[in-house]
Amino acid sequence: MKTILRLTLALSLSFAALGASAQSNVLRVSAIPDEAPTELQRKFTPLGDYLKKETGMDVQFTPVTDYAAVVEGLATNKIDMAWLGGFTFVQARIRTGGGVVPIVQRAEDEVFTSKFIVPIDSTAKTLADLKGKTFAFGAPSSTSGSLMPRYFLLQAGINPEKDFKTVAFSGAHDATVAFVAASRAEAGVLNASVWDKLV
Predict the structure, then answer these.
(1) Same domain flag for 79 and 176
(2) 103 and 119: one domain?
(3) Which residues form the domain of 94?
């Protein structure tokens, strides 16, 4: 059980969808696409196995194209349960009128962080050094790939839309690393746990 809890950031349940799902005997589980689809599938296979064992229901992982799609899937009862970040949970809670509730959170989620990255040969050493550079966030609705970093940039006196040469959205944490590695952005930001896994 502890392994399953570690796999989930904020697994949220839509009660209306679960009722419909119970009638079809298929539990539709999804996740914010913060990493490559193959990695998400790998991460959710143990969760699906656990849920099938505990509920007796077939579990279907339902991939989505972006963060908004998982929120909409919960709101329209196309998804029964989803792995969400803090920001997307708030969006889902509002979009469903409170119909989505959190059921589990990992211990590290209380203290998770973002990492600002630059190429190894970059002269940038501080956030202030990023002014005038091209910059890549993750997905617009990502807590650690957009919301939190924007707060820290603003606290450092950097308005992304005014102070960066251009702002791009990679769509996922691992994609941000690829953006910076391929020189599509001179700097970027991503979830620290994804960074730690990649280095």
Answers:
(1) no
(2) no
(3) 2-109
Q: CB of 149 within 8 A of CB of 116?
A: yes
- The tokens for 97 are 């009128």
59 and 94 assigned to the same domain = yes
Q: Given this model, what pLDDT does residue 7 score?
A: 37
Give backbone dihedrals phi and psi of 29, rounded to 5 degrees, phi first: -115, 140
d(CA 115, CA 24): 42
| Three-class secondary structure of residue 194 per DSSP | helix
Number of domains in the chain: 2
For the entire predicted model, the pTM comes to 0.77
% of the chain at pLDDT higher than 90: 71
Q: How far apart are CA 44 and CA 160, in angstroms?
A: 34
Q: Do the Cβ atoms of 21 and 96 come closer than 8 Å?
A: no
Two structure tokens written together for 183:
């020189």
